[in-house]
Write a structure and sequence with these properties.
heterodimer; A: mainly beta; 6-stranded antiparallel β-sheet; globular; B: alpha+beta; 5-stranded antiparallel β-sheet; 4-stranded mixed β-sheet; 7 helices; transmembrane (chain B); membrane (chain B); ER membrane protein complex subunit 10 (chain B); endoplasmic reticulum (chain B); transmembrane helix (chain B)
């Protein structure tokens, strides 16, 4: 007995020392990549140029709609370097100058930059100003003799600039003062010193300027009028001929300006094609001698045979895309043509003056999920047999980028993921026999060896090779990328909707694409030219039937931006990515309200509000209707009209009185309205609590054993308004004229529960609302710093429930239902702190039960995610907290929030172009999953209060086992010894 | 006990108010950001024009303010609707507008006179009570040029209002002369589920509160602390000295156990020796119990 009591403490200590090995908040270097992944994208490619120089042959330079310029490896599609220009610095054109500089024109033609091709360093930047806003055109003359020509010609802001390629110095410029002149093409015929600027003035005048390329001297200015006007698009067919269409789209005009003389040649389309079927448009291209027009049904290729004579070479009703022109040798130019035919695409490379002969003809099987080919860029290479080979870079409708060579897809990039609109998380299938991918540990020896290695690592006995072995073992642990649900809920699917209208399911373990689906409703079609995906909602999340029913998501897509455009609902299975069903609605959709009710198949009820203020219930089943009727009078919602500063509250009234309406349509009525005076308030931010947030306890015990009750209402709305003047650019307003008002509005009754004015503050406001607190970020003009404020709201009507006896005897009102029509008795506490960074997004961690303390996730301007403990944003912080307050965990008051370098969730990585942060609770209470998206994607797991409820991955079970074995052995040995001793004593 | 007293006092004041109001009625309101105007308590049978009631009262205060700033009197009406019916006039707010020297205008001394329900309105209201529907009110969003940009609407379930009479509570959020929002409801709680209860008296007791925006607390600035912090930042902060016990308890406990163990061993030894010597003279009889004691 004495012996046992002697060892027990040791056993206890052994365990203690293990549990104290919990990980610190930041990562160790060797933990990078264990739980997090990072993916880099560039967005939909707008323009691609290939380097022709020897060293740059393996590279392609692209500019994208996400304002990225990047250099990609042509062999594998990897990024060599990339730069993200700001959203107000849109790229207009890129080109390569002198074979080693990438030239970009951006910001509406006012910024010209040069980047070093090998490493992406910026060489120079010059700012080009002009008298008026205009289309911007970039022309880098591609002379084969490089050393002679080093001038970049830029037409922007109504002025023609010639810029030196070496240092960005503006050599000369020439204004085009004429009010209505609109330049369409800047042409420099190869080998000449003349520059032609052609364009339209007014609506019916064609103008041509001939300029000396050496000094910008205007040599000739010709104009000609064509009475019926032009469509604003031209196709360049030779260096001195353009083709345009008249304003009706039925007559082709061949305009030649040879030797400065303008001559028109009219050809009605009907004379070329028998059945033109409607007006045509020109497909902009610059293939010498050939141009393409498109009518409703056909794409027609027309050849120009001298003196303005036209000849149709091909008429096709397939979707066709033409590439840029590639000079392959002196006087020979090639271009590529891509046509769709069923599930294949046909690629043809032709020489400009020889339509019928093909340099290359290939067909490639193409995934239907990628949609149409949007853009084609052609590049050549020298084959092993010294002949010309061609490869093309194609941009698909789903924004993916593919390289085709020798009839195969060499590589593809899913760049649609650079523009994520909405994200939702879905569970993985439950592990079942047969489905299971689980591998039983290979064998006991391997397992033991692994743990011995870990043990060595823990005891710091490991050699560098061992460390490497441990690292690789951790990384490839197949556990985290299995396709089944795990016990801790770390493995999930992230269902992502991109701007292109494609749905992706990403595995949280390693970020791979599990499935992708291009929604039929989001394909461009005859009925809808510009469909847009709006939102993603969880439609069905089976818990009771998790074994035999798959969860599904609801995708809402609309044809065009107007709110009464036709809407399509699509339901997609999240396990397989199959579209289960799709509904074309007869009404528009302004607002979608997921209701907190589900039917027996666990489909969530959704209320769709159309522009006529009718509410429509989905799913349209009688069961859903029955559930809905039961809760009819308890459904309230609000709408924000931020253009005129009105917030309105609504409730349901009755069935639609409309004759045509079905039984799932309901009339609504306005219950309340808040009107912000237009001269003093402009709504810039509205934030509510997350629907699925869980709050663990309503009571908060504060220092002196007192209890405060959090005011927890799902119907609270945070609104921030600023002075109308203060919503302009920074610097446009003085602190006296600028203020920011924060409101807390109850969305059922329209009560303003709290209203506070920050004088001298301005937007942009980023806010996050959780439990009973709101944190918002804004700029303080007086202090010249960013600030973060916190408002906490507490319920006073429950404040009397402090007496234990009352609770014991049940004389409390804690379990009585709350009606928001009662007069609220709330108090608020608030405090402001300075914060160093400007912010792109704010989110808060969310855990399964809401017990774990919260962290704010701040997306900083440097595209990183910073985890900031909520305790720093406690309004009860004071300069000298009492002992009791210190025990409670209140941090002494400081004027600014600390930024601890270790608390960057993204550690050394950057999520370029960060737009949103999403948190998803894992099943394990201590852990939350964080997904940050922008141009890049980043995912990690966070444990705001450390993983207090589980052993960490690197926990050495072998050491524990060894200790136990040793202890048991010791117990036996000493027991034997004591037995013997006792026996000896007895025999004495 | 105290609460009962307070409640009694409140009830008393509510009842006595109309009678008091004929004698002396001070509606002196604090020109602070939160103003509390208690007005429009149950009215006499015939609706009395507000002007007569408020006329004699404000003279004293008015003089004081008019020296500094000009103020003028305005009226704006409260409309109500039963369920989804159209709005009809229900009462009048009267207030003074103070024009400050810096150009701002504020509303002060808000008073409210409620029209009594007509019999038809009573019937409508009863219907509302029966169907648990909304009673809606509206105010202009600008009191100088009603209705301003839009009307401010607020609603409450009709069943929340009846108590003894009909109790209502207005919180009007103002921004200069603009009404931002009005919070309308019962002055106390409205329990759920709402039970049908008809008022004993068909007259309103109204409470009105004007609210302007609060100032946010400034972010604290500690310049001195920061300097101090910088000076002290170079040194490594020493962790507070812990007591000997706090530091070494994990070693002390096993040590203690070992010692106690050793002591008990040592205690047993002499005991054994002592008992061992006795039987040498006294014989076998003693041995049994002593060994039993040891085995325990």
């Amino acid at each position: 007995m004495a012996i046992r009591s002697f060892f027990a403490p040791f056993l206890f200590f052994a365990l203690c020392s293990y549990s104290s090995l919990t990980p610190v908040l930041s990562l160790y270097e060797d933990q990078v990549g264990l739980m997090d992944w990072h993916q880099q994208y560039i967005g939909k490619v707008k323009q691609a140029v290939f380097s022709t120089q020897k060293t740059g042959r393996r590279r392609v330079i692209v500019s994208t709609e996400e304002n990225v310029i990047a250099s990609l490896d042509l062999r594998h599609g990897e990024i060599f370097w990339r730069h993200l220009l700001g959203s107000n610095d849109v790229i207009d054109g890129i080109d390569i100058g002198l074979g080693k500089y990438v030239i970009t024109l951006s910001s509406g033609g006012s910024v010209l930059r040069s980047w070093n091709l090998p490493d992406g360093q910026m060489m120079w930047e010059s700012s080009l100003q002009g008298p008026k806003h205009s289309k911007s055109l970039l022309l880098v003359p591609t002379n084969l003799k490089i050393e002679k020509d080093n001038v970049i010609v830029v037409f922007s802001n109504g002025r023609l600039h010639a810029v030196s390629c070496i240092d960005g110095e503006v050599l000369w410029n020439k204004d085009f003062e004429a009010e209505s002149f609109e330049a369409l093409q800047v042409i420099q015929p190869p080998g000449s010193d003349l520059i032609y600027v052609v364009g339209f003035a007014a609506s019916s005048q064609f103008e041509m300027y001939q300029i000396n390329a050496r000094n910008g001297e205007l040599l000739k200015h010709e104009r000609a009028t064509f009475s019926s006007g032009f469509l604003r698009e031209v196709s360049l067919v030779s260096s001195e001929t353009v083709v345009a269409l008249d304003s009706t789209g039925s007559i082709l005009l061949t305009i030649s300006f040879q030797n400065g003389e303008i001559s028109f040649q009219q050809t009605p389309i009907s004379s070329l094609v028998e059945d033109p079927s409607g007006p045509a448009v020109i497909i902009p291209s610059s293939v010498p001698g050939i141009f393409a027009i498109k009518t409703n049904a056909f794409t027609i290729f027309i050849r120009v045979i001298g003196e303005g004579k036209l000849e149709v070479v091909e008429k096709t009703n397939h979707e066709t895309t033409v590439s840029n022109v590639l000079p392959i040798s002196e006087g020979q130019q090639a271009f590529a043509l891509v046509q769709h035919a069923g599930s294949e695409i046909h690629l043809a490379v032709k020489i400009a003056h020889d339509w019928d002969g093909n340099l290359l003809k290939e067909s490639i099987k193409m995934d239907q999920q990628r949609g149409l080919v949007h853009k084609v860029f052609i590049n050549n290479y020298i084959r092993t047999d010294r002949s010309h080979g061609f490869r093309v870079l194609i941009v698909m409708e789903d924004h993916s980028l593919l390289l085709l060579q020798q009839g195969a897809i060499v590589w593809s990039r899913e760049d649609g993921l650079a523009s994520v609109i909405d994200v939702t998380a879905s569970e993985l299938p439950v592990e079942r026999d047969g489905v299971s991918v689980a591998k039983v540990e290979h064998n006991l020896f391997e397992w033991l060896k692994g743990h011995m290695l870990k043990l060595k690592g823990t005891l710091m006995l490991a050699s560098p090779e061992d460390v490497a072995a441990i690292q690789s073992m951790r990384l490839k642990s197949s556990e985290k990328s299995k396709m089944t649900r795990d016990h801790n809920g770390f493995r999930k699917l992230l269902v992502v909707l991109t701007r292109a209208g494609k749905l992706f399911a990403l595995h949280t373990g390693d970020g791979r694409i599990v499935w992708s689906h291009f929604l039929q409703s989001l394909h461009k079609s005859g009925t809808c030219q510009s469909p847009i995906g709006l939102n993603l909602y969880q439609w069905q999340v089976p818990h009771h039937h998790a074994m035999d029913e798959n969860p599904s998501v609801l995708v809402i897509s609309r044809c065009g931006p107007s709110s009464d455009a036709p809407v399509v609902l699509s339901f997609v299975d999240t396990y397989t990515g199959k579209e289960l069903n799709s509904l074309s609605l007869v009404h528009g959709v302004v607002q979608v309200i997921p209701l907190p009710y589900t039917d027996s198949t666990e489909q969530r009820l959704h209320l769709l509000i159309d522009s006529d203020k009718h509410a429509h219930l989905y799913p349209t089943t009688s069961e859903a209707l029955r559930i809905f009727k039961r809760e009819f009078s308890n459904i309230y919602w609000y709408s924000v009209e931020d253009h005129n500063g009105i917030i309105k509250g609504h409730a349901l009234k009755c069935k639609c009185t409309d004759e045509a309406a079905d039984e799932f349509c309901f009339d609504t009525r306005d219950l309340w309205s808040v009107v912000f005076p237009s001269e003093s308030g402009k709504i810039i931010a509205t934030v509510t609590r997350k629907l699925n947030e869980v709050v663990h306890t309503q009571a908060k015990v504060i220092a002196d054993q007192d209890v405060m009750y959090k005011y927890i209402s799902r119907n609270l709305l945070f609104v921030a308004t600023v002075a109308p003047k203060g919503s302009g650019e920074i610097g446009s307003v003085t602190p006296e004229e600028s203020w920011l008002v924060a409101y807390l509005i109850d969305t059922v009754t329209g009560r303003i529960l709290h209203r506070v004015t920050h004088h001298g503050a301005r937007g942009p406001v980023h806010a996050v609302f959780s439990e009973n607190w709101i944190v918002y970020h804004y700029f303080n003009l007086r202090a010249h710093r960013y600030e973060m404020s916190v408002i906490e709201i507490y319920d006073q009507s429950r404040a009397d429930n402090k007496d234990v006896w009352k609770l014991v005897l049940g004389k409390h009102n804690l379990s009585s239902p709350i009606s928001l029509f009662s007069r609220p008795e709330v108090i608020t506490k608030s405090q402001s702190y300075f914060f160093t960074h400007s912010v792109k997004a704010i989110a808060v961690t969310s855990t399964a039960k809401g017990i774990t303390s919260k962290q704010l996730l701040v997306g900083t301007i440097g595209d990183q995610v910073l985890a900031l403990d909520k305790r720093f944003l406690d309004p009860r912080r004071s300069v000298n907290p009492t002992q009791a307050e210190k025990e409670e965990g209140i941090i002494p008051l400081t004027d600014s929030l600390p930024i601890i370098p270790q608390s960057y969730v993204t550690h050394a990585l950057r999520v370029e172009g960060l737009r949103g942060i999403i948190t998803v609770p894992a099943k394990l209470e201590s852990t939350t999953l964080v997904f940050a998206h922008g141009v890049d994607l980043f995912f990690t797991q966070l444990a705001p209060s450390r993983t207090y409820d589980s052993l960490t991955e690197d926990f050495s079970y072998a050491l524990l086992l060894l200790t136990i074995v040793a202890l048991v052995a010791a117990i036996f040995v000493t027991w034997r010894l004591s037995e013997r001793k006792e026996l000896q004593d007895k025999w004495r | 006990m105290d609460t009962i007293k307070v409640v009694a006092a409140i009830i008393l004041t509510i009842y006595l108010f109309p009678f008091l109001s004929f004698g002396f009625q001070s509606d002196e309101l604090l020109v602070d950001d939160e103003e509390f105007g208690l007005e429009g308590a149950p009215q006499p049978r015939f609706p009395e024009p507000t002007s007569t009631r408020s006329a004699p009262v404000t003279t004293a205060t008015r003089k004081r303010h008019s020296d500094l700033d000009s103020d003028s009197k305005i009226e704006f009406s409260l409309d109500h609707a039963f369920g989804d019916s159209d709005f009809s006039p229900a009462g009048t707010f009267s207030a003074r507008i103070k024009t400050w020297s810096h150009g701002g205008q504020t509303l002060t001394k808000l008073r409210f006179s409620r029209n009594n329900f007509t019999s038809e309105e009573q019937k409508k209201f009863k219907n509302l009570l029966e169907s648990d529907d909304f009673y809606r009110i509206r105010l202009p969003s600008n009191v100088l040029s009603p209705p301003g940009r839009d009307f401010i609407i607020s609603s409450v379930k009709a069943r929340c209002l009846p108590r003894e009479g009909l109790d209502e509570h207005f919180v009007i959020h103002l921004e200069g002369v603009n009404v931002l929002a009005v919070n309308y409801g019962s002055p106390g709680s409205c329990s759920y589920p709402r039970n049908l209860k008809l008022p004993v008296k068909w007259s309103f007791s109204s409470y009105t509160v004007l609210k302007n925006s609060e100032q946010a607390p400034r972010a604290p600035i500690f310049t001195e602390e920061i300097l101090g912090g910088e000076n002290g930042g170079g040194e490594v902060v020493q962790p507070p000295e812990r007591s000997f016990w706090a530091k070494y308890w994990m070693y002390l406990i096993p040590l203690g156990l070992i010692i106690t163990n050793a002591i008990t061993q040592a205690m047993n030894m002499p005991e054994e020796q002592a008992t061992g010597q006795v039987p040498a003279s006294a014989g076998m009889v003693q041995r049994g119990p002593s060994s039993a004691a040891r085995r325990r």
